[in-house]
Design goal:
The chain is α/β, with parallel strands linked by helices. About 40% of the residues lie in helices and about 20% in strands.
Length: about 280
């Protein structure tokens, strides 16, 4: 497995593989890998000849007071896990390599798709995401890029960027990977103390009960949102950022659940903010 730190080096390496007709898959990550990330790598291996995993904690997608400084990092552990999964290359640049001192170019998707959910509570977040992903796509030249459904809004925003700007690649969505007790896997889970870790199980429980209510015939989106909030608020340490229901394709507002929907949650347990979601089709 090759490890690259410099943009020019990995870009030249990827160009060589492209010229030889090999299909490249990219798995963008911020490191501190877990089973969810590794499933993305496995899916990439199933579809592609060459798999590149980027490890970069992107400063431009963190806002003031967020957890950039304490975001978990363990490069040696990450590369060991990727060796076992037979990844072909790791791209792990510094912030200085990705953003030169006079950096002033940004890629931004506007409209409802970026102003709701995480876009509302984390201003500027998606501008950082789209900019760094545009750079990674240009650097690594992937045919396919693999993202987890846990970051549902992020995937929708990136798909919009690819369509609008005619990027010659496709995003593959991979289902959420959960712990045995149902908690969605996240690099931030390690920041939870034992009590918060137990209380965080309420997220998957709320989504499950809301889905059952819909399957049993409830079609009023407002009532389902009330149900989600009531269940989450039963955990004393849960602080809801959002618990929303939108159209699954474009995040349009809905009153009646008569199409495929996205139920999306963001909840803080202490200082740790977790997200989760579920797609439901009626």
């Amino acid at each position: 497995m090759r490890i690259f730190k410099e943009i020019q080096s990995i870009q030249n390496w990827c160009k060589e593989h492209k010229l030889q007709g090999r299909k490249i898959g990219l798995v963008p990550t911020m490191g501190y890998l877990h089973e969810g990330h590794l499933e993305l790598v496995r899916e990439a291996k199933r579809h592609c000849d060459i798999v590149v995993v980027s490890i970069f904690v992107n400063p431009t997608q963190f806002g003031a007071g967020e957890d950039f400084e304490v975001y978990p990092r363990d490069f040696e552990r990450d590369t060991s896990l990727l060796e076992r999964e037979n990844a072909d290359a790791v791209f792990a640049p510094t912030a200085e390599e990705m953003y030169l001192s006079d950096f002033s170019s940004w890629v931004e998707v506007t409209g409802e798709i970026t102003t709701k959910l995480c876009g509302a509570s984390r201003p500027g977040h998606f501008r950082g995401v789209t900019t760094v992903c545009a750079k990674l796509f240009n650097i690594c030249l992937p045919d396919l890029a693999f993202f987890g459904q846990k970051d549902a809004q992020q995937v929708m925003v990136l798909e919009k960027m690819l369509t609008d700007l005619n990027f010659p690649l496709q995003i593959i969505r991979v289902p959420i990977v959960r712990e045995a007790d149902g908690l969605a896997m996240s690099s931030r889970n390690v920041c939870l103390d034992a009590e918060a870790r137990e209380q965080a199980l309420v997220l998957n429980r709320a989504l499950g009960q809301a889905e059952r209510a819909i399957k049993d015939g409830e079609r009023d989106a407002a009532r389902i949102k009330v149900l989600l909030r009531e269940i989450i608020e039963s955990s004393p340490r849960a602080e809801i950022d959002y618990a929303e229901i939108y159209d699954a394709y474009d995040l349009a507002d809905i009153q009646q659940i008569d199409r495929k929907i996205l139920m999306a949650l963001a909840v803080k347990f202490g200082k740790t903010r977790l997200i989760d979601n579920r797609l439901v089709e009626v």
